[in-house]
Amino acid sequence: MSQLPPCPQCASPYSYADGDLLICPECAHEWSAAGDSDAVDADAPIKDAVGNLLQDGDTVTVIKDLKVKGSSLVVKVGTKVKNIRLCGGDHDIDCKIDGIGAMKLKSMFVRKV
């Protein structure tokens, strides 16, 4: 029987497998048993559509019309978004757009100004 790795969050040795995930019973943290191939690395640089490195506080421009889910609003091409915040996950930019409000964007649809 192979030994499972300890929890990366609390270092508990009591992790167990549930399908493709490993679970820690002490802190309830879940992580991929196959490695971090699907997970987004928190330290990985986030780049815009043309490869420029993005940072917190940057101003970006939207390069494609984006429909706002759950609404009839559209974020138009050329919309400037100021003071972005980077976060992990699929939608890696937190921002506030005038006339629409707070939302998350994918970095592949913006260009650094």
UniProtKB/TrEMBL annotation:
Domain Protein YjdM N-terminal: 3-32
Xref: InterPro entries: YjdM, YjdM_C, YjdM_N
Span of the signal peptide: none
Database matches in Pfam families: YjdM (PF03831), Zn_Ribbon_YjdM (PF08274)
Residue ranges annotated for the Protein YjdM C-terminal domain, each copy included: 46-113
Record-stated family: Belongs to the YjdM family.
The name this protein goes by in its record: Alkylphosphonate utilization protein
